[in-house]
Amino acid sequence: TLTVRRNEAANWLRRTVGVVCAKNLAEEPSEEEFRVGLRNGIILCNAVNKIQPGTVPKVVEVHSVSTIPSDGSALCAYQYFENVRNFLTGLQDLGLPTFEVSDLEKGGQGVRVVDCVLALKSFAETKKLGKQSLFKHGGIVKPSMSAKCSVRKNEPFMKAMTRSHSAELLRDGVSPEQTLGLDCSLEPAETITSDSIRMLVQTIISDKKPEEVPLLVESLLSKVIHEFERRMANQNDLMDEEDHESVTNHVKTDEEDNSCVTNNVKMDDEDHNSVGSTGDVSAAGLVNGDSVAKEIQAMADIHFELQKKQIQDMKSNICTVKSGIEQFKLQYSEDLAKLGNHLRTISHAASGYHKVLEENRKLYNQIQDLRGNIRVYCRVRPFLPGKVSSSSSVAGIEDRTITLMTSSKQGKDARKSFTFNRVFGPLATQAEVFVDMQPLVRSVLDGYNVCIFAYGQTGSGKTFTMSGPKILTEEGLGVNYRALNDLFDIQAQRRDTFCYEISVQMMEIYNEQVRDLLHSGPNKKDSK
Ligand SMILES: Nc1ncnc2c1ncn2[C@@H]1O[C@H](COP(=O)(O)OP(=O)(O)OP(=O)(O)O)[C@@H](O)[C@H]1O
């Protein structure tokens, strides 16, 4: 705020001119007190002369302090005006902001006075800083030039600052010998720009004799090179530090990798357990980059050797597997060749199968023909329950012959023998009877027509032989059932090579009449 800034300005003036000179300016003056305190221009002129001696060549002052009223009214108005005017002119010469004389009168713009004083304060501080910097590095001591020579009227404040700063160097003067001691390595926060440096050099050589210039430039360049090398060395040191930090971080990262490696090593080979402990020690004892690098290199070497060994093992395993595969391939080709031979044999056999089958069929049926195209069998029914067995007319039964005895005739005529393909006695079972007929069923499936029928008087046992008893059992199955069973069995055996269609009809011939027993409707007589 304005009050704070005004207090700051008052304090700075008091410090600059001393409390005796600034006895009429309070530390924290009001606006009026500030105006009255500075009104006669004495404090202002002394202040600017402290900063820049000679800015106000003559300050009108009253030495008898006691005679000066608090508002400075003892001085004539023109005297006040003279001091203030000289002060403002000096500010203009320094390129600082100014104010109007009327601003120190009642009703004037006191803020402009405050601004002006604070600008002078900044100027003084900047100048002091520049001097310290120069003295610190240089030893520039010989004033030979007025500050005014480098300060032009109405230049911008900051530009004036820079120029003034440069002017300090010049004003203090530099002999060639002294310049040799000039340290161009101004502080890193130096305020001198390239323009000001150029100006500085120009000014330095401007008042030098031509023969002094090369020596001067040489000394400057020498200093510049020296400074450049120093900064490069600093830069390298900084970069080394950064690299070291980077290496340390890298090592930390590698520590984690090494722990993985260590685990792998432990798992792979117990002989390499020492590797794990080495890795732990190196991880714990990372002190500097070299030792760490060596540890890492050692770990990498061990890991490399381990991997090399694993690769060799894998190579030998691959060789073993390869030879195994070659052997297997050889055996496989041999087996394949054997299988091919077998297949050729089977193929050859298969090609002759149908021929052989046909031949077999012909031979089989030739046998059936040889056994008789028409075969006649005789079966003797046992006595039915309740009948006397002694009244039988059968005198004897042989394999193919049966002998009957007629009680009404005597002698030789009483006995007659009959020959059949085979004679079955009363004890013959259904299975025994069917055995002689079974080959004919196979001939049916080979394409031959076969007819099996029973012939005899009523109650002689035709139905029993062909179908079975009234209460049917497995053993009692007659020729019809057994023949049909055989037909279906042979059909199943040959299903891969033959396809058979089987159908059944049941006809009855009775009293010269044929009847279809499976016809569900009214009996249909068929003369055929
Ligand atoms: N080998 C046998 N063993 C036991 N019993 C038999 C035998 N043959 C026939 N029989 C019995 O004799 C009786 C008459 O037989 P079956 O009915 O088969 O004669 P059939 O010749 O068919 O008579 P029909 O011409 O009148 O029909 C039946 O009770 C039957 O069980």
Protein architecture, described:
Residues 3-125 form the Calponin-homology (CH) domain. The chain is mostly helical and 528 residues long. Among the domains are: 2-124, Calponin-like domain (Actin-binding Protein, T-fimbrin, domain 1); 371-428, no CATH class; 429-528, Kinesin motor domain (Kinesin, 3-Layer(aba) Sandwich). The protein has helices spanning 2-21, 31-38, 42-51, 77-94, 110-137, 157-172, 176-180, 194-206, 212-268, 273-284, 289-370, 430-435, 438-445, 462-466, 479-493, and strands spanning 377-379, 394-397, 401-405, 415-419, 422-424, 507-510, 513-516. The strands form three sheets. A three-stranded antiparallel beta sheet has the order 2-3-4, with no helix packed on it. Residues 381-382, 384, 456, 458-464, 469 line the site of adenosine-5'-triphosphate.
Shape: rod-shaped
* CATH level-1 class of the domain at 2-124: Mainly Alpha
Oligomer: single chain
Fill in the CATH topology of the domain at 2-124: Actin-binding Protein, T-fimbrin, domain 1
What's the topology here?
Layout: H1 2-21, H2 31-38, H3 42-51, H4 77-94, H5 110-137, H6 157-172, H7 176-180, H8 194-206, H9 212-268, H10 273-284, H11 289-370, E1 377-379, E2 394-397, E3 401-405, E4 415-419, E5 422-424, H12 430-435, H13 438-445, H14 462-466, H15 479-493, E6 507-510, E7 513-516
Parallel strand pairs: 1-5
Antiparallel strand pairs: 2-3, 3-4, 6-7
Bound molecules: adenosine-5'-triphosphate.
GO cellular component, one term: microtubule
Domain Kinesin motor: 373-528
Protein name: Kinesin motor domain-containing protein
